[in-house]
Design brief:
Layout: H1 12-27, E1 39-44, H2 50-61, E2 65-69, H3 72-75, H4 84-91, E3 97-102, H5 107-114, E4 119-124, H6 130-144, E5 151-156, H7 162-173, E6 177-182, E7 184-187, E8 190-193, H8 198-203, E9 207-208, H9 214-217, E10 223-226, E11 241-243, E12 260-262, H10 287-304
Parallel strand pairs: 1-2, 1-3, 3-4, 5-6, 5-10, 6-9, 10-12
Antiparallel strand pairs: 7-8, 7-11
Amino acid sequence: MRHFLSIDDLSMDQIETVLDWTKSIESGWQYCRSMNNKCISCFFAEPSTRTRFSFERAMHWLGGRVVTAADASTSSSLRKGESIKDTIRTLGQYSDAIVMRHPDPNWPEVAREYSRVPVINAGSGSGEHPTQALLDLHTIRQKWGKVGGLKVMLSGDMTNGRTVHSLIGLLHMYGCKIFYCPAKIVHGSSVEYLGLPEKYLRAQPCTMVEVECANDLLKDMDVIYMTRIQTERMATDGDMDIRYFAIDEKNVDLIKDEAAILHPLPRGKEISPLIDDDPRADYHERQVRNGLYVRTALLDYILYGNPIIAP
């Protein structure tokens, strides 16, 4: 049994195995094995479009079954006060693996201790989102043919952005040069940065970029990774002034032709819809689609432990 609750749960060799299998799936679905009636529980106590649908479609494509709770915060016994431990133990009786999202950033450790079936972290509050990081890594490699040595700018809400918390570990592992451009909240004369939490910043050295200076670096960046401002995780008020870097028709031409613009979605105003059809905008056709391929490979790896690589 193997959980995937943090990006640290897989070694580089294991990551390469999953990504090799992903490439095989991209080239031909006929190489997918039949799951022989295996079943996963998709338990989402926070909203999801791409993650939930891609996991469910992946399991169907593999010939397996899915039981799902898309609004688990209101439709499950969580609303009655059931503990995460009891929920996980219950789901394990009905499925061979659990795919779970919950607003508590600490729920993965409860799963690690008490689940008797593999659990996949599909989002843990403001903690991690490791499967998104895998598909982001695959998208970068797909675009550039490599990952090592690339210059990557991470922009937006670095405090609450769980996708960045997982991705930065992979970028560091592969030797990328990382720049981060955190949004900031201006309270009169004081500034509060929505920057990387200390545990991620301490482990992964990177260069901070002020919002006002981000345009100056665009010509040098190989990947620009945008994130939205997660106001649902903040105690906001109507007078709060949040300033963040945005890409629009005014500065998109500063980005070099071969660069990739990525976003885990959903987005706010940090990427203008007017550039959605720009060839550098890879957040729909590449990034979203890759979620299906990567999660198919991951399910196969976790449920069987030895993905079949296409000849």
